[in-house]
């Protein structure tokens, strides 16, 4: 697995959002994209993280950036999660974790001594030319938003 690096072209993605519409990075050429990967809808950390992005949405949008959240959850689950928490950005369904693999965030994790594969909470900032401007790995759900906003 190749892990993307700052300055590299961002790996392509083409996934369905919570409305069942196909979303790709190509459609955001000329804009900065905040692409964040999270493990699961409706879990405490992921809900806090999504709501933190929601609360900073206006400021991020004002800087000319868009937010895309990605998890392995299905479209229908994303739709409920987005509606319940009034999320004003797309949540993308990566059920087969192909995009997570491309970004190097589908990793072995451990909880209570049990090993399993899952998403490493990470955020990638992609510049208007489609290149990786910043990478935040193993982030805290609520504290890394300040770092993201600072690089926009």
Describe the secondary-structure layout:
Blueprint: E1 14-16, E2 22-24, E3 32-37, H1 44-55, H2 57-62, E4 65-71, H3 75-84, E5 90-93, H4 98-102, E6 106-111, E7 114-119, E8 122-126, E9 132-136, H5 145-151
Parallel strand pairs: 3-4, 4-5
Antiparallel strand pairs: 1-2, 3-8, 6-7, 8-9
Description:
This protein has 152 residues and is α/β, with parallel strands linked by helices. It has one domain: 3-Layer(aba) Sandwich (Glutaredoxin). The chain is built from 5 helices and 9 strands; from the N terminus they run βββααβαβαββββα. The strands form 3 sheets. The protein has a 5-stranded mixed beta sheet with strand order 5-4-3-8-9. A two-stranded antiparallel sheet has the order 1-2.
Structure in a nutshell:
This protein has 152 residues and is α/β, with parallel strands linked by helices. The protein is built from 5 helices and 9 strands, in the order E-E-E-H-H-E-H-E-H-E-E-E-E-H. The protein is 26% helix and 30% strand.
Residue share in helices?
25-40%
Number of helices: 5
Across the major sheet, the strand order is 5-4-3-8-9
* Percent in strands: 25-35%
Query: How do the helices and strands follow one another from N- to C-terminus?
Result: EEEHHEHEHEEEEH
* Helix/strand class: alpha/beta
Major sheet? 5 strands, mixed
Distance between the termini: 28 Å
**What are the segments in which pLDDT stays under 50 over at least 5 consecutive residues?**
none
- How many β strands by DSSP? 9
What would you call the shape? globular
CATH fold naming: Glutaredoxin
Radius of gyration from the CA trace?
Answer: 14 Å
Domain tally: 1
Q: What is the annotated CATH architecture?
A: 3-Layer(aba) Sandwich
The CATH superfamily bears the name Glutaredoxin
């Amino acid at each position: 697995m190749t892990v993307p690096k700052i300055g590299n072209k961002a790996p392509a993605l083409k996934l369905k959002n919570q409305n069942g519409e196909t979303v790709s990075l190509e459609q955001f050429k000329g804009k900065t994209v905040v692409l964040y990967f999270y493990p699961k809808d409706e879990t405490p950390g992921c809900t806090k993280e999504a709501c933190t992005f929601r609360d900073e949405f206006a400021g991020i949008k004002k800087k000319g950036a868009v937010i895309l959240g990605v998890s392995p959850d299905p479209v229908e689950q994303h739709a409920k999660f987005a509606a319940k928490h009034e999320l004003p950005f797309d949540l993308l369904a990566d059920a087969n974790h192909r995009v997570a693999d491309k970004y190097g965030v589908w990793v072995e994790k451990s909880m209570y001594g049990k090993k399993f594969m899952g998403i490493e909470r990470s955020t990638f900032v992609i510049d208007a030319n489609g290149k990786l401007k910043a990478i935040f790995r193993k982030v805290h759900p609520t504290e890394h938003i300040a770092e993201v906003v600072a690089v926009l």
